[in-house]
Amino acid sequence: MNIVKELYRITQDIDQLLNQSIVQSNRADVLTNVQSLLDEREVLMKKLHTPVSNEDKELGQSLLLLDKQIQKRMNELFNKVKLDMKLVKKQKTSNQKYLNPYKNIANFDGTFLDKKK
Fold this sequence. Notes:
Elements: H1 3-19, H2 27-47, H3 54-99
Helix pairs in contact: 1-2, 1-3
């Protein structure tokens, strides 16, 4: 099969995966599938040489458009994951503060500080 056509098919598969509704429960599976498709695509891109026919050039142009859409969706997904990580970290620290509220308070009770020289 033509390498450009195979690249286009894989890129469409990635686009379809990212177009489906991605919730927290299926996000790991989607990311795993996207990563495997990106790995396949990387191997094909290394084999790619300059396009010979007009059809290859047209597919290449549509590949660039699809790639921009994929990049945009991947950035949105990355930002969602980053936000979830921040929320988990915040929840963890809030939970620790709730369990031990006096952990970070400096304890100077019972000490006498003499200011005379």
